[in-house]
Specification:
The chain is an alpha+beta fold. It folds into 2 domains: 69 residues, no CATH class; 91 residues, no CATH class. The strands form 2 sheets. It has a 3-stranded antiparallel beta sheet, with helices on one face. Strands 4-5 form a two-stranded antiparallel ribbon. The chain is extended. The two termini are 45 Å apart.
Length: 186
């Protein structure tokens, strides 16, 4: 559990550089607890190197924390959809494989963006589901919304899709399918 943070800043010029950089040092005091017992305390240090002289040290730390989400996206492309792990032998095949993987990631993002949030008693829950869908890992998305066992039945003049299992995201999938039936409007 985070106890407190200290922020300091100083100038640093590496030996081979001509100009000095601004370094923001963040020290976090963390208390490790189990239940109500305090096991030990430790300090963690983070250093941010920047050439931004206008922002305050706190703003630099918050900006760096916001960028961590971009690192999570890159990690998801690398390990979630495996877009950066190309098993093929030439550059064209690797490019096509990466495009297919990023299209799968884009499908997940579009599903999150197209999720309807109508006003009403369930508006807050729908907004939370939309945000969860946007930040969901790709493996979770694939298992929750794509890899559902479904029985396809052809009757006289229509096709029926019967879901053979249920998970907490089934209601979201059904709401999403209703919104995707409508034409897209800007």
């Amino acid at each position: 559990m985070l106890q407190w943070e200290d922020i300091a800043e100083f100038e640093h010029r590496p030996d081979k550089c001509k100009k000095a950089y601004r370094v923001i040092a963040l020290r976090k005091r963390i208390s490790v607890e189990q239940g109500q017992d305090k096991l030990f305390e430790e300090y963690r240090y983070f250093f941010y190197i920047t050439n931004d002289r206008a922002s305050t040290p706190r703003q630099i730390v918050l900006l760096a924390n916001d960028r961590c989400d971009q690192e999570n996206l890159i990690e998801q492309l690398k390990n979630g959809v495996r877009a950066l792990r190309n098993p093929l032998d030439n550059l064209y095949s690797n490019w096509a494989y990466m495009v297919c993987c990023t299209l799968a990631w884009t499908l997940k993002s579009w599903c999150g963006l197209l999720m309807p949030t109508a006003p009403g008693p369930h508006a807050q829950a729908h907004r939370q589901q939309k945000q969860s869908l946007l930040t969901m890992e790709f493996k979770t998305f694939a298992n929750a919304l794509v890899k559902l066992p479904c029985q396809i039945v052809r009757t006289g003049r229509r096709i029926l899709y019967r879901l053979l299992s249920w998970n907490p995201w089934t209601g979201v999938l059904l709401r999403l399918s209703k919104s995707m039936r409508l034409p897209l409007r800007c």
